[in-house]
Specification:
This protein is α+β, with helices and mostly antiparallel strands and 322 residues long. Strands 1, 2, 3, 4, 10, 11, 12 and 13 form an eight-stranded mixed sheet that branches. A five-stranded mixed sheet has the order 7-6-8-5-9, sandwiched between helices. Helix 1 runs antiparallel to helix 2 and helix 7 runs parallel beside helix 8.
């Protein structure tokens, strides 16, 4: 990858998530999850195919949501330039957006060809994520109390000052019970575990670690962010049904293997871009005015550790300004 492409590539990716976020935000609070997702997919794909690279979607909509575009294995980009793996979540929080809830994002991660893990039909993972201060001290195979103590020590906090973010799902009730037993605080969320993982690496969020079982595509995207931000994520594929366990056997997926950040998104260059759809702790959502939309985005690059925040004013009356 040439330096010139590296400098411009992150901005191109931000344009992709901006288009998706603006399209999805038109459906905020209208109780139509499928419309939110389809609008975002259409908006994202429109600009993605203008970018000078040869991309293959490794994490897409096909396996999990059966969306008609941006499916796993789809080729994107204009076919010229570096060969890359792509992980997309046109809206991390489609249900949030449909309900009018906070914290939905449009997000894309890109890395060198063959460096992104593909979970296929195993759509859930057990996860543990922390920011830079606690990177290197966690162990997914250790008890919950051990990891809480390790993170508290690394950050100079007492256990009762620690805040753990957890998806509010029945499958996480054991985690919730053990966190409470240890005396740590819990932030429960309904959706959006990409932004939840990223929040652990941002001091102003007050989130110290993420625990629990959530989406495996989201874990791969979060790993790209951790590569850029210096945090750490550890994961293990999770099969909650006999059908999923049989799938793992057929596809030779090891349900006991702990995967690290670099197992999910390997060495070399990696990028992440995200745009807020609805306002949350991480990014503000899309704001509409007369013939105008305002978006709030972030771009990250692993090789330089650069993180840029971008506020863009889109003139909706001019197609080139969207």
């Amino acid at each position: 990858m040439t330096p010139a492409l590296g400098r411009s590539f992150a901005l191109d990716l931000a344009k992709v998530t901006e288009r998706a976020a603006v399209a999805a935000a038109h459906w905020q609070g209208r109780a139509d999850k499928e419309a939110v997702d389809q609008a975002a997919v259409d908006g994202m794909r429109e600009h993605l195919n203008t970018i000078p690279f040869d991309g293959v979607v490794v994490i897409g909509e096909g396996e999990k949501d059966h969306a008609p575009m941006l499916h796993n294995g789809e080729r994107v980009g204009n076919g010229q330039g570096p060969r890359m793996d792509i992980a997309v979540d046109p809206v991390d929080g489609t249900s949030l957006t449909a309900r009018g809830g906070p914290g939905a994002l449009s997000v894309i991660a890109v890395a060198g060809r063959g460096t992104m893990f593909s979970p296929g039909g195993l759509v859930y993972m057990d996860k543990l994520a922390v920011g830079p201060e606690a990177a290197g001290v966690i162990d997914l195979e250790a008890p919950v109390s051990y990891n809480l103590e390790q993170v508290a020590s690394a950050k100079g906090l007492d256990l009762d000052q620690l805040t753990v973010i957890v998806l509010d799902r029945p499958r996480n009730r054991d985690y919730i019970r053990e966190i409470r037993r240890a005396g740590a605080r819990i932030r429960m969320i309904g959706d959006g575990d990409v932004s939840a993982a990223i929040a652990t690496a941002r001091p102003e969020t007050g989130i110290d670690l993420l625990m629990g079982i959530g989406g495996s595509p989201e874990a791969v995207i979060a790993a790209a962010a951790m590569r850029c931000m210096g945090g750490e994520i550890q994961t293990r594929l999770w099969a909650g049904t006999d059908q999923q366990r049989q799938y793992a056997i057929r596809h030779e997926q090891d349900l006991n293997q702990v995967m690290t950040t670099c197992d999910l998104v390997g060495g070399g260059e990696a990028y992440l871009a995200a745009t807020g759809v609805t306002t949350g702790e991480f990014l503000r959502g899309v704001e509409f005015g007369h013939d105008q939309a305002i978006t709030h985005s972030v771009t990250m690059r692993a090789s330089t550790g650069t993180i840029r925040y971008i506020v863009t004013y889109h003139n909706l009356a001019r197609s080139e300004g969207r």
